[in-house]
Amino acid sequence: MDTQGRGRAENVDPADQWVLNPDTGEYELRLSPSAPQSTVPRPRGAGTAARTRTAPPAAPGRSVPSPRRRPQEPLPGRRGRRPEQQKSKAKKAVLWTGGTMAFVLVAAAGAGYFYLQHLAGNIKTNDVGDAGASSFKKDEAFNVLVIGTDKRTGEGNEGYGDKGSAGHADTTILLHVAKDRSNATALSIPRDLIVDIPDCLTRKEDGTEVTVPGQQQVRFNRSLGESGRDPGCTMRTVTEATGIPMDHFMMADFNAVKTLTKAVGGVKVCVTKAVNDKESKLVLPKGESQVEGEQALAFLRTRHSFGNQGDLDRIKVQQQFLGSLMRQMSSSDTLTSPTKLVKLAEAATEALTVDSAIGKVGTLKDMALEIKKVPTKNITFTTLPVEDNPAETVKATVVVNEAKAPQVFDMIKNDVSFTEVKQQQAKEKAAVAARLKGPKSAASQVRVRILNGGAPGGSAQQELDWLQNTAGVDKSENAGNAGTTQARTTLEYAPDQAAQARRLADLLGLSGSAMKPGESVTNSQGLPAMTLVLGEDFKGAGVKFNGASAKTPDVEKSTADEVKCAG
Predict the structure, then answer these.
(1) pLDDT tens sequence across 254-277
(2) pTM above 0.70, yes or no
(3) Cα gap 360→118, rounded to integer Å
Protein backbone atom coordinates (compact mmCIF):
# COMPACT_ATOMS: atom_id res chain seq x y z
CA MET A 1 0.00 0.00 0.00
CA ASP A 2 1.32 3.47 -0.84
CA THR A 3 1.94 6.31 1.60
CA GLN A 4 -1.38 8.02 1.09
CA GLY A 5 -3.25 4.75 1.13
CA ARG A 6 -1.97 3.93 4.61
CA GLY A 7 -3.16 7.19 6.08
CA ARG A 8 -6.57 6.93 4.48
CA ALA A 9 -7.03 3.27 5.26
CA GLU A 10 -6.46 3.86 8.92
CA ASN A 11 -8.66 6.97 8.93
CA VAL A 12 -5.71 9.05 10.11
CA ASP A 13 -5.12 12.63 9.05
CA PRO A 14 -1.81 12.61 7.09
CA ALA A 15 -1.01 16.00 8.60
CA ASP A 16 -0.54 14.28 11.95
CA GLN A 17 1.89 11.73 10.50
CA TRP A 18 4.78 14.21 10.09
CA VAL A 19 6.97 14.12 13.22
CA LEU A 20 10.17 16.09 13.92
CA ASN A 21 13.19 13.92 14.72
CA PRO A 22 15.22 15.96 17.26
CA ASP A 23 18.43 14.09 16.47
CA THR A 24 18.45 14.97 12.76
CA GLY A 25 16.41 18.16 12.72
CA GLU A 26 14.30 16.68 9.92
CA TYR A 27 10.62 15.77 9.64
CA GLU A 28 9.82 12.09 9.28
CA LEU A 29 6.68 10.42 8.00
CA ARG A 30 5.41 8.14 10.80
CA LEU A 31 2.82 5.94 9.13
CA SER A 32 2.16 3.87 12.23
CA PRO A 33 4.03 3.17 15.47
CA SER A 34 5.69 0.16 13.90
CA ALA A 35 6.26 1.39 10.35
CA PRO A 36 9.63 2.52 8.99
CA GLN A 37 10.20 6.25 8.86
CA SER A 38 10.61 8.29 5.67
CA THR A 39 12.91 11.27 6.02
CA VAL A 40 12.19 14.55 4.20
CA PRO A 41 13.89 17.94 4.25
CA ARG A 42 13.25 19.92 7.38
CA PRO A 43 10.85 22.82 6.65
CA ARG A 44 12.30 26.24 7.32
CA GLY A 45 10.87 27.96 10.34
CA ALA A 46 10.76 24.88 12.56
CA GLY A 47 12.48 26.15 15.69
CA THR A 48 13.66 24.76 18.96
CA ALA A 49 10.17 24.75 20.39
CA ALA A 50 9.30 21.96 18.03
CA ARG A 51 12.24 19.93 19.30
CA THR A 52 10.46 19.31 22.59
CA ARG A 53 7.55 17.58 20.91
CA THR A 54 6.41 14.57 22.90
CA ALA A 55 6.56 11.31 21.01
CA PRO A 56 3.17 9.88 20.07
CA PRO A 57 1.86 7.34 22.58
CA ALA A 58 2.29 3.71 21.75
CA ALA A 59 -0.65 1.66 20.62
CA PRO A 60 -1.65 -1.05 23.07
CA GLY A 61 0.83 -3.87 23.07
CA ARG A 62 3.36 -2.08 20.88
CA SER A 63 6.44 0.01 21.48
CA VAL A 64 7.53 3.25 19.84
CA PRO A 65 11.19 4.19 19.23
CA SER A 66 12.42 6.84 21.62
CA PRO A 67 12.37 10.31 20.04
CA ARG A 68 16.05 10.70 21.02
CA ARG A 69 17.27 7.36 19.67
CA ARG A 70 16.77 6.12 16.15
CA PRO A 71 16.52 2.34 15.63
CA GLN A 72 19.48 0.72 13.87
CA GLU A 73 17.20 -1.23 11.57
CA PRO A 74 13.68 -0.25 10.51
CA LEU A 75 11.00 -2.40 12.03
CA PRO A 76 8.81 -4.41 9.67
CA GLY A 77 6.01 -2.29 8.19
CA ARG A 78 2.77 -3.61 9.68
CA ARG A 79 -0.60 -1.98 9.54
CA GLY A 80 -1.67 -0.77 12.94
CA ARG A 81 -4.28 1.73 14.01
CA ARG A 82 -2.74 4.88 15.41
CA PRO A 83 -4.46 6.39 18.48
CA GLU A 84 -6.27 9.67 17.98
CA GLN A 85 -4.32 12.79 18.91
CA GLN A 86 -5.40 16.32 19.65
CA LYS A 87 -4.97 18.30 16.41
CA SER A 88 -3.64 21.84 16.57
CA LYS A 89 -5.39 24.06 14.03
CA ALA A 90 -2.65 26.66 14.35
CA LYS A 91 -0.03 24.12 13.27
CA LYS A 92 -1.90 22.39 10.46
CA ALA A 93 -2.39 23.56 6.88
CA VAL A 94 -4.03 21.73 4.01
CA LEU A 95 -2.11 22.37 0.81
CA TRP A 96 -3.34 21.89 -2.75
CA THR A 97 -1.37 24.74 -4.27
CA GLY A 98 1.35 24.96 -6.86
CA GLY A 99 2.02 28.64 -7.61
CA THR A 100 -0.30 30.57 -9.94
CA MET A 101 -1.48 28.22 -12.70
CA ALA A 102 0.44 25.33 -11.21
CA PHE A 103 -1.50 26.02 -8.01
CA VAL A 104 -4.71 24.94 -9.68
CA LEU A 105 -3.03 22.04 -11.40
CA VAL A 106 -1.78 20.69 -8.08
CA ALA A 107 -5.34 21.06 -6.87
CA ALA A 108 -6.74 19.12 -9.78
CA ALA A 109 -4.07 16.47 -9.36
CA GLY A 110 -4.97 15.95 -5.71
CA ALA A 111 -1.86 16.60 -3.62
CA GLY A 112 -1.97 16.06 0.16
CA TYR A 113 -2.15 17.39 3.69
CA PHE A 114 0.95 18.87 5.30
CA TYR A 115 2.01 19.57 8.84
CA LEU A 116 3.80 22.80 7.93
CA GLN A 117 2.71 25.86 9.88
CA HIS A 118 5.18 28.15 8.14
CA LEU A 119 3.41 27.83 4.77
CA ALA A 120 1.04 30.66 5.59
CA GLY A 121 3.97 32.99 6.13
CA ASN A 122 5.31 32.24 2.65
CA ILE A 123 2.30 33.65 0.83
CA LYS A 124 2.42 37.30 -0.31
CA THR A 125 -0.78 39.32 -0.77
CA ASN A 126 -1.92 42.45 -2.58
CA ASP A 127 -5.08 44.45 -1.86
CA VAL A 128 -6.83 45.04 -5.21
CA GLY A 129 -9.90 46.76 -3.75
CA ASP A 130 -13.06 46.50 -5.83
CA ALA A 131 -11.16 45.11 -8.84
CA GLY A 132 -11.94 41.68 -7.38
CA ALA A 133 -14.28 39.93 -4.97
CA SER A 134 -14.14 40.64 -1.24
CA SER A 135 -14.18 36.93 -0.36
CA PHE A 136 -14.08 33.46 -1.92
CA LYS A 137 -17.48 31.80 -2.29
CA LYS A 138 -17.34 28.02 -2.52
CA ASP A 139 -20.82 27.63 -3.99
CA GLU A 140 -20.40 30.02 -6.94
CA ALA A 141 -18.61 30.08 -10.28
CA PHE A 142 -15.37 32.05 -10.04
CA ASN A 143 -12.74 33.66 -12.26
CA VAL A 144 -9.05 33.73 -11.33
CA LEU A 145 -6.55 35.78 -13.31
CA VAL A 146 -3.27 33.86 -13.39
CA ILE A 147 -0.33 36.16 -14.12
CA GLY A 148 3.29 35.28 -14.91
CA THR A 149 5.57 38.33 -14.79
CA ASP A 150 8.89 39.01 -16.46
CA LYS A 151 10.37 40.62 -13.36
CA ARG A 152 14.06 39.76 -12.91
CA THR A 153 13.88 38.56 -9.32
CA GLY A 154 15.76 35.60 -7.95
CA GLU A 155 19.17 34.08 -8.52
CA GLY A 156 20.02 33.29 -12.12
CA ASN A 157 17.23 35.40 -13.64
CA GLU A 158 19.32 38.45 -14.57
CA GLY A 159 19.27 37.54 -18.26
CA TYR A 160 15.50 37.11 -18.54
CA GLY A 161 12.74 39.61 -19.24
CA ASP A 162 13.19 43.36 -19.65
CA LYS A 163 16.09 44.92 -17.80
CA GLY A 164 14.83 47.29 -15.12
CA SER A 165 11.23 46.13 -15.60
CA ALA A 166 8.91 46.37 -12.63
CA GLY A 167 7.32 43.18 -13.95
CA HIS A 168 4.97 43.20 -16.93
CA ALA A 169 2.06 40.79 -17.51
CA ASP A 170 4.13 38.46 -19.68
CA THR A 171 1.86 35.41 -19.46
CA THR A 172 -1.79 35.79 -18.47
CA ILE A 173 -4.54 33.17 -18.20
CA LEU A 174 -8.15 33.78 -17.24
CA LEU A 175 -9.27 30.65 -15.40
CA HIS A 176 -13.04 30.21 -15.17
CA VAL A 177 -14.40 27.44 -12.94
CA ALA A 178 -18.04 26.49 -13.49
CA LYS A 179 -20.55 26.78 -10.68
CA ASP A 180 -21.33 23.05 -10.77
CA ARG A 181 -17.58 22.23 -11.04
CA SER A 182 -18.25 20.09 -14.12
CA ASN A 183 -15.84 22.07 -16.27
CA ALA A 184 -13.25 24.86 -16.38
CA THR A 185 -11.84 27.09 -19.10
CA ALA A 186 -8.30 28.51 -19.18
CA LEU A 187 -8.31 31.45 -21.61
CA SER A 188 -4.84 32.74 -22.54
CA ILE A 189 -4.59 36.50 -23.17
CA PRO A 190 -1.78 37.53 -25.58
CA ARG A 191 0.65 40.03 -24.09
CA ASP A 192 0.73 41.95 -27.40
CA LEU A 193 -3.04 42.45 -27.47
CA ILE A 194 -3.99 46.12 -27.98
CA VAL A 195 -6.33 47.24 -25.18
CA ASP A 196 -7.50 50.28 -23.27
CA ILE A 197 -6.08 50.30 -19.73
CA PRO A 198 -8.54 52.03 -17.37
CA ASP A 199 -7.68 54.37 -14.50
CA CYS A 200 -6.52 52.22 -11.62
CA LEU A 201 -6.62 52.83 -7.88
CA THR A 202 -3.57 51.22 -6.25
CA ARG A 203 -2.61 50.85 -2.60
CA LYS A 204 0.98 51.25 -1.47
CA GLU A 205 2.55 49.30 1.38
CA ASP A 206 2.11 52.26 3.73
CA GLY A 207 -1.64 52.26 3.05
CA THR A 208 -1.79 55.37 0.86
CA GLU A 209 -3.87 55.23 -2.30
CA VAL A 210 -2.74 56.43 -5.71
CA THR A 211 -4.75 56.55 -8.93
CA VAL A 212 -2.68 55.59 -11.96
CA PRO A 213 -4.08 57.24 -15.13
CA GLY A 214 -5.28 54.90 -17.85
CA GLN A 215 -3.91 54.59 -21.38
CA GLN A 216 -5.64 54.03 -24.69
CA GLN A 217 -4.63 51.51 -27.35
CA VAL A 218 -1.50 50.07 -25.77
CA ARG A 219 -0.12 46.56 -25.29
CA PHE A 220 -1.89 44.47 -22.66
CA ASN A 221 1.35 43.57 -20.85
CA ARG A 222 1.70 47.22 -19.79
CA SER A 223 -1.31 46.82 -17.49
CA LEU A 224 1.09 45.54 -14.82
CA GLY A 225 4.26 47.09 -13.41
CA GLU A 226 4.38 50.24 -15.50
CA SER A 227 3.71 53.51 -13.62
CA GLY A 228 3.08 51.55 -10.44
CA ARG A 229 0.24 49.43 -11.81
CA ASP A 230 -0.53 46.42 -9.63
CA PRO A 231 -2.39 43.15 -10.42
CA GLY A 232 -5.66 44.95 -9.71
CA CYS A 233 -4.96 47.12 -12.77
CA THR A 234 -4.52 43.99 -14.89
CA MET A 235 -7.78 42.61 -13.52
CA ARG A 236 -9.61 45.83 -14.42
CA THR A 237 -8.10 45.77 -17.91
CA VAL A 238 -9.27 42.20 -18.53
CA THR A 239 -12.77 43.01 -17.29
CA GLU A 240 -12.99 46.05 -19.57
CA ALA A 241 -11.69 44.13 -22.59
CA THR A 242 -13.87 41.03 -22.15
CA GLY A 243 -16.83 42.05 -20.03
CA ILE A 244 -15.97 39.16 -17.68
CA PRO A 245 -15.66 40.22 -14.01
CA MET A 246 -12.52 39.08 -12.22
CA ASP A 247 -12.76 37.61 -8.72
CA HIS A 248 -9.16 36.85 -7.74
CA PHE A 249 -5.61 36.79 -9.04
CA MET A 250 -2.51 34.64 -8.57
CA MET A 251 0.91 35.86 -9.69
CA ALA A 252 4.43 34.46 -9.90
CA ASP A 253 7.75 35.27 -11.57
CA PHE A 254 10.45 33.20 -13.29
CA ASN A 255 11.39 31.44 -10.06
CA ALA A 256 8.01 29.72 -9.85
CA VAL A 257 8.58 27.67 -12.99
CA LYS A 258 12.07 26.61 -11.90
CA THR A 259 11.23 25.65 -8.33
CA LEU A 260 7.91 23.94 -9.09
CA THR A 261 9.26 21.77 -11.89
CA LYS A 262 12.19 20.73 -9.71
CA ALA A 263 9.79 19.90 -6.88
CA VAL A 264 7.90 17.34 -8.99
CA GLY A 265 11.05 15.86 -10.53
CA GLY A 266 10.57 17.38 -13.96
CA VAL A 267 7.81 17.67 -16.57
CA LYS A 268 7.53 15.69 -19.80
CA VAL A 269 7.48 17.77 -22.99
CA CYS A 270 7.42 16.77 -26.62
CA VAL A 271 8.74 18.49 -29.76
CA THR A 272 8.21 17.49 -33.38
CA LYS A 273 11.82 18.33 -34.30
CA ALA A 274 15.14 18.86 -32.52
CA VAL A 275 15.46 22.32 -30.92
CA ASN A 276 18.59 24.43 -30.49
CA ASP A 277 17.28 27.92 -29.74
CA LYS A 278 19.97 30.60 -29.41
CA GLU A 279 17.61 33.10 -27.80
CA SER A 280 16.20 30.95 -24.98
CA LYS A 281 19.16 28.53 -24.84
CA LEU A 282 16.75 25.58 -25.14
CA VAL A 283 18.34 22.39 -26.51
CA LEU A 284 16.10 19.35 -26.93
CA PRO A 285 16.14 16.26 -29.15
CA LYS A 286 13.15 15.33 -31.28
CA GLY A 287 10.41 13.56 -29.33
CA GLU A 288 9.82 13.44 -25.58
CA SER A 289 12.12 14.93 -22.95
CA GLN A 290 11.98 15.63 -19.23
CA VAL A 291 12.63 19.28 -18.32
CA GLU A 292 12.98 21.08 -15.00
CA GLY A 293 14.48 24.24 -13.56
CA GLU A 294 16.27 26.44 -16.08
CA GLN A 295 15.44 24.11 -18.95
CA ALA A 296 11.70 24.20 -18.13
CA LEU A 297 11.78 27.99 -18.06
CA ALA A 298 13.62 28.02 -21.39
CA PHE A 299 10.93 25.76 -22.89
CA LEU A 300 8.18 28.18 -21.84
CA ARG A 301 10.10 31.24 -23.09
CA THR A 302 10.99 29.81 -26.51
CA ARG A 303 9.34 31.48 -29.49
CA HIS A 304 11.71 31.27 -32.45
CA SER A 305 11.71 27.46 -32.67
CA PHE A 306 7.95 26.90 -32.65
CA GLY A 307 5.25 27.67 -35.21
CA ASN A 308 5.50 31.11 -36.79
CA GLN A 309 7.93 32.25 -34.07
CA GLY A 310 5.36 34.57 -32.53
CA ASP A 311 3.75 34.96 -29.13
CA LEU A 312 0.54 33.15 -30.15
CA ASP A 313 2.45 29.94 -30.89
CA ARG A 314 4.39 30.35 -27.65
CA ILE A 315 1.01 30.42 -25.87
CA LYS A 316 0.11 27.04 -27.40
CA VAL A 317 3.40 25.61 -26.12
CA GLN A 318 2.65 26.99 -22.64
CA GLN A 319 -0.79 25.36 -22.69
CA GLN A 320 0.74 22.02 -23.65
CA PHE A 321 3.27 22.39 -20.84
CA LEU A 322 0.54 23.09 -18.27
CA GLY A 323 -1.42 20.05 -19.39
CA SER A 324 1.71 17.92 -18.99
CA LEU A 325 2.36 19.44 -15.57
CA MET A 326 -1.15 18.50 -14.52
CA ARG A 327 -0.62 14.91 -15.60
CA GLN A 328 2.67 14.81 -13.71
CA MET A 329 0.98 16.14 -10.57
CA SER A 330 -1.60 13.37 -10.73
CA SER A 331 0.94 10.59 -11.32
CA SER A 332 1.74 8.10 -8.60
CA ASP A 333 5.40 9.19 -8.73
CA THR A 334 4.37 12.54 -7.24
CA LEU A 335 1.45 11.62 -5.03
CA THR A 336 3.26 8.79 -3.21
CA SER A 337 6.52 10.66 -2.63
CA PRO A 338 6.63 12.53 0.71
CA THR A 339 9.82 14.32 -0.36
CA LYS A 340 8.28 15.61 -3.60
CA LEU A 341 5.11 16.71 -1.85
CA VAL A 342 6.98 18.68 0.82
CA LYS A 343 9.21 20.32 -1.78
CA LEU A 344 6.11 21.15 -3.80
CA ALA A 345 4.44 22.72 -0.78
CA GLU A 346 7.48 24.90 -0.15
CA ALA A 347 7.86 25.95 -3.78
CA ALA A 348 4.16 26.63 -4.22
CA THR A 349 3.65 28.98 -1.31
CA GLU A 350 6.96 30.81 -1.82
CA ALA A 351 6.14 31.43 -5.49
CA LEU A 352 2.67 32.80 -4.87
CA THR A 353 1.31 36.35 -4.67
CA VAL A 354 -2.47 36.54 -4.41
CA ASP A 355 -5.22 39.05 -3.66
CA SER A 356 -5.91 39.59 0.03
CA ALA A 357 -9.33 37.91 -0.21
CA ILE A 358 -7.66 34.52 -0.73
CA GLY A 359 -4.40 35.22 1.08
CA LYS A 360 -4.76 32.54 3.72
CA VAL A 361 -3.72 28.91 3.39
CA GLY A 362 -7.20 27.82 4.48
CA THR A 363 -8.87 29.89 1.76
CA LEU A 364 -6.45 28.69 -0.89
CA LYS A 365 -7.18 25.16 0.26
CA ASP A 366 -10.92 25.75 -0.12
CA MET A 367 -10.46 27.16 -3.62
CA ALA A 368 -8.20 24.32 -4.69
CA LEU A 369 -10.58 21.68 -3.37
CA GLU A 370 -13.30 23.20 -5.55
CA ILE A 371 -11.03 23.18 -8.61
CA LYS A 372 -10.07 19.59 -7.82
CA LYS A 373 -13.67 18.56 -8.53
CA VAL A 374 -13.31 19.42 -12.24
CA PRO A 375 -12.38 16.38 -14.39
CA THR A 376 -9.19 16.97 -16.39
CA LYS A 377 -10.98 16.03 -19.61
CA ASN A 378 -13.27 19.01 -19.07
CA ILE A 379 -10.51 21.58 -18.41
CA THR A 380 -10.19 23.43 -21.72
CA PHE A 381 -7.18 25.50 -22.78
CA THR A 382 -7.86 28.09 -25.47
CA THR A 383 -6.68 31.55 -26.52
CA LEU A 384 -8.62 34.78 -26.82
CA PRO A 385 -9.52 35.09 -30.53
CA VAL A 386 -7.38 37.80 -32.14
CA GLU A 387 -6.27 39.07 -35.53
CA ASP A 388 -3.39 41.19 -36.80
CA ASN A 389 -3.60 44.86 -35.91
CA PRO A 390 -4.85 46.54 -39.11
CA ALA A 391 -3.20 49.82 -38.06
CA GLU A 392 0.28 48.34 -38.47
CA THR A 393 2.29 47.79 -41.62
CA VAL A 394 4.84 45.62 -39.83
CA LYS A 395 2.71 43.27 -37.77
CA ALA A 396 3.79 43.28 -34.12
CA THR A 397 0.53 43.46 -32.17
CA VAL A 398 -2.95 41.96 -32.35
CA VAL A 399 -6.51 43.12 -31.71
CA VAL A 400 -9.64 41.31 -30.57
CA ASN A 401 -11.36 39.35 -33.34
CA GLU A 402 -14.84 40.85 -33.11
CA ALA A 403 -16.36 38.02 -35.16
CA LYS A 404 -15.26 35.24 -32.80
CA ALA A 405 -14.41 36.72 -29.41
CA PRO A 406 -17.91 37.81 -28.28
CA GLN A 407 -19.18 34.21 -28.26
CA VAL A 408 -16.15 33.09 -26.25
CA PHE A 409 -16.73 35.87 -23.71
CA ASP A 410 -20.45 35.08 -23.49
CA MET A 411 -19.81 31.37 -22.92
CA ILE A 412 -17.50 32.14 -20.01
CA LYS A 413 -19.85 34.77 -18.53
CA ASN A 414 -22.80 32.37 -18.85
CA ASP A 415 -20.87 29.42 -17.40
CA VAL A 416 -21.02 27.33 -20.60
CA SER A 417 -18.40 24.63 -21.19
CA PHE A 418 -16.22 24.48 -24.30
CA THR A 419 -16.44 20.70 -24.13
CA GLU A 420 -19.74 18.86 -23.87
CA VAL A 421 -20.09 17.88 -20.24
CA LYS A 422 -21.74 14.60 -19.32
CA GLN A 423 -21.85 14.04 -15.59
CA GLN A 424 -25.08 12.22 -14.93
CA GLN A 425 -25.48 10.03 -11.89
CA ALA A 426 -26.93 6.51 -12.11
CA LYS A 427 -30.42 7.69 -11.29
CA GLU A 428 -30.18 10.44 -13.88
CA LYS A 429 -29.01 7.98 -16.52
CA ALA A 430 -31.96 5.73 -15.78
CA ALA A 431 -34.31 8.68 -16.15
CA VAL A 432 -32.74 9.61 -19.48
CA ALA A 433 -33.03 6.06 -20.76
CA ALA A 434 -36.67 5.84 -19.79
CA ARG A 435 -37.85 9.26 -20.95
CA LEU A 436 -35.68 10.01 -23.96
CA LYS A 437 -35.83 6.61 -25.60
CA GLY A 438 -38.40 6.34 -28.36
CA PRO A 439 -39.63 8.11 -31.50
CA LYS A 440 -39.47 11.89 -31.83
CA SER A 441 -41.98 14.15 -33.51
CA ALA A 442 -40.91 16.60 -36.19
CA ALA A 443 -40.00 20.02 -34.83
CA SER A 444 -42.91 21.52 -36.73
CA GLN A 445 -45.33 19.32 -34.77
CA VAL A 446 -44.09 20.38 -31.32
CA ARG A 447 -46.53 22.59 -29.41
CA VAL A 448 -45.15 24.28 -26.31
CA ARG A 449 -45.84 27.29 -24.10
CA ILE A 450 -42.76 28.99 -22.59
CA LEU A 451 -42.75 30.59 -19.14
CA ASN A 452 -40.00 32.44 -17.30
CA GLY A 453 -39.43 30.85 -13.90
CA GLY A 454 -36.13 32.36 -12.82
CA ALA A 455 -34.23 33.34 -15.98
CA PRO A 456 -33.32 36.98 -16.70
CA GLY A 457 -36.10 39.24 -17.93
CA GLY A 458 -36.98 38.73 -21.58
CA SER A 459 -35.60 35.18 -21.68
CA ALA A 460 -38.90 33.55 -22.61
CA GLN A 461 -39.21 35.75 -25.71
CA GLN A 462 -35.57 35.18 -26.65
CA GLU A 463 -35.98 31.41 -26.42
CA LEU A 464 -39.23 31.62 -28.39
CA ASP A 465 -37.50 33.55 -31.17
CA TRP A 466 -34.76 30.93 -31.33
CA LEU A 467 -37.20 28.01 -31.38
CA GLN A 468 -39.33 29.53 -34.14
CA ASN A 469 -36.64 31.07 -36.34
CA THR A 470 -33.79 28.59 -35.91
CA ALA A 471 -35.09 25.29 -34.55
CA GLY A 472 -38.31 25.12 -36.58
CA VAL A 473 -40.65 24.88 -33.58
CA ASP A 474 -43.18 27.34 -35.03
CA LYS A 475 -46.06 26.16 -32.80
CA SER A 476 -44.50 27.66 -29.70
CA GLU A 477 -45.62 30.73 -27.77
CA ASN A 478 -44.59 33.04 -24.93
CA ALA A 479 -46.79 32.51 -21.86
CA GLY A 480 -45.12 35.17 -19.68
CA ASN A 481 -43.87 34.68 -16.13
CA ALA A 482 -44.36 31.46 -14.20
CA GLY A 483 -45.17 33.23 -10.94
CA THR A 484 -42.60 31.21 -8.99
CA THR A 485 -38.84 30.80 -9.25
CA GLN A 486 -37.10 27.47 -9.81
CA ALA A 487 -33.44 26.55 -10.10
CA ARG A 488 -33.80 24.10 -12.99
CA THR A 489 -35.63 24.31 -16.29
CA THR A 490 -38.44 21.77 -16.66
CA LEU A 491 -40.66 20.46 -19.45
CA GLU A 492 -44.06 19.10 -18.45
CA TYR A 493 -46.00 16.98 -20.92
CA ALA A 494 -48.91 14.54 -21.11
CA PRO A 495 -48.30 10.85 -21.96
CA ASP A 496 -49.53 11.31 -25.55
CA GLN A 497 -47.01 14.17 -25.99
CA ALA A 498 -43.93 12.05 -25.22
CA ALA A 499 -42.70 12.10 -28.84
CA GLN A 500 -42.97 15.91 -28.89
CA ALA A 501 -41.18 16.11 -25.53
CA ARG A 502 -38.31 13.96 -26.78
CA ARG A 503 -37.85 16.21 -29.83
CA LEU A 504 -37.84 19.40 -27.74
CA ALA A 505 -35.50 17.85 -25.16
CA ASP A 506 -33.11 16.94 -27.97
CA LEU A 507 -33.18 20.49 -29.33
CA LEU A 508 -32.64 22.09 -25.92
CA GLY A 509 -30.23 19.56 -24.41
CA LEU A 510 -32.65 18.76 -21.58
CA SER A 511 -31.87 15.77 -19.36
CA GLY A 512 -34.34 13.08 -18.40
CA SER A 513 -34.73 14.59 -14.95
CA ALA A 514 -35.88 17.87 -16.51
CA MET A 515 -38.72 16.08 -18.29
CA LYS A 516 -41.79 15.90 -16.07
CA PRO A 517 -44.61 13.57 -17.15
CA GLY A 518 -47.84 15.27 -16.16
CA GLU A 519 -50.65 17.13 -17.90
CA SER A 520 -50.96 19.22 -21.01
CA VAL A 521 -52.23 22.80 -21.13
CA THR A 522 -54.28 24.61 -23.73
CA ASN A 523 -52.47 27.09 -25.95
CA SER A 524 -53.83 30.27 -27.53
CA GLN A 525 -55.15 28.21 -30.46
CA GLY A 526 -57.17 25.97 -28.15
CA LEU A 527 -54.88 23.00 -28.73
CA PRO A 528 -53.05 20.87 -26.15
CA ALA A 529 -49.48 21.99 -25.56
CA MET A 530 -46.52 21.21 -23.31
CA THR A 531 -45.15 23.64 -20.71
CA LEU A 532 -41.51 24.71 -20.72
CA VAL A 533 -40.47 26.68 -17.62
CA LEU A 534 -37.10 28.39 -17.88
CA GLY A 535 -35.23 28.21 -14.57
CA GLU A 536 -32.18 29.94 -13.15
CA ASP A 537 -29.99 27.57 -15.18
CA PHE A 538 -31.05 29.23 -18.44
CA LYS A 539 -27.90 30.62 -20.11
CA GLY A 540 -29.19 32.17 -23.29
CA ALA A 541 -31.30 31.45 -26.35
CA GLY A 542 -29.98 28.42 -28.20
CA VAL A 543 -27.57 27.40 -25.46
CA LYS A 544 -28.19 23.78 -24.56
CA PHE A 545 -28.90 22.87 -20.95
CA ASN A 546 -26.49 19.90 -21.00
CA GLY A 547 -23.51 22.26 -20.92
CA ALA A 548 -22.83 22.30 -24.65
CA SER A 549 -23.15 25.37 -26.81
CA ALA A 550 -25.70 25.16 -29.60
CA LYS A 551 -22.82 26.17 -31.85
CA THR A 552 -19.24 25.43 -30.84
CA PRO A 553 -17.07 28.53 -31.29
CA ASP A 554 -14.51 28.40 -34.07
CA VAL A 555 -11.45 28.59 -31.83
CA GLU A 556 -8.46 26.31 -31.39
CA LYS A 557 -8.58 24.50 -28.06
CA SER A 558 -7.21 21.52 -26.16
CA THR A 559 -7.99 19.76 -22.89
CA ALA A 560 -5.74 18.94 -19.97
CA ASP A 561 -5.80 15.19 -20.63
CA GLU A 562 -4.40 15.51 -24.18
CA VAL A 563 -0.75 14.83 -25.01
CA LYS A 564 0.58 17.11 -27.76
CA CYS A 565 3.98 17.92 -29.26
CA ALA A 566 5.25 21.44 -29.91
CA GLY A 567 6.59 22.22 -33.34
Answers:
(1) 777 788 888 778 889 888 899 998
(2) no
(3) 12
